[in-house]
Amino acid sequence: MAKINDVHDIIVLATAPVFTAHTYTEVYGGSAGCTITLNGLTVAVGSSSSLFINVRTVSGGTGCYLLGVNLNVMGEGSRIG
After folding, report:
1. Is 51:25 a contact under the CB 8 Å cutoff?
2. Domain for residue 78, yes or no?
3. In this structure, is residue 80 part of a structural domain?
4. What's the CA gap between 78 and 81, in Å, rounded?
5. What pLDDT is stored for residue 81 in this prediction?
6. End-to-end alpha-carbon separation of the chain, Å?
7. Structural domain range at position 41
């Protein structure tokens, strides 16, 4: 799912994703960067860097953040509509 007006709804620690509530489309490296396994592939994310990817699975990633949107952006409690 694309960002709405180029703005994310949520940001969570990469070590604590909530896939039942959010869709993540960006990984931010935080102030120190991190090593994270995304969709089965281990990658290094540099400090203050972003990786734009549809995140399906994640492990590790201490120091990184996941950015995305709520799953039900058009439903009850949405900021749209």
Report:
1. no
2. no
3. no
4. 7
5. 41
6. 17
7. 10-70
pTM score of the predicted model? 0.81
Helix (H) or strand (E) holding 68: strand 65-70
Instruction: Please indicate, yes or no, if residue 3 is contained in any of the structural domains.
Output: no
44-78 burial, b if ≥16 CB within 10 A, otherwise e? ebeeeeebeeebeebeebebbbbbbbbeeeeeeee
Cα separations in angstroms, 53 against 26, 39, 73, 77? 6, 10, 19, 26
Report CA dihedral (18, 54, 40, 21) to the nearest 10 degrees: 10
User: How many domains does the chain contain in total?
Assistant: 1
pLDDT in tens, the chain (81 residues): 555 567 888 999 999 999 999 999 999 999 999 999 999 999 999 999 999 999 999 999 999 999 999 987 555 544 444
Residues written for the chain: 81
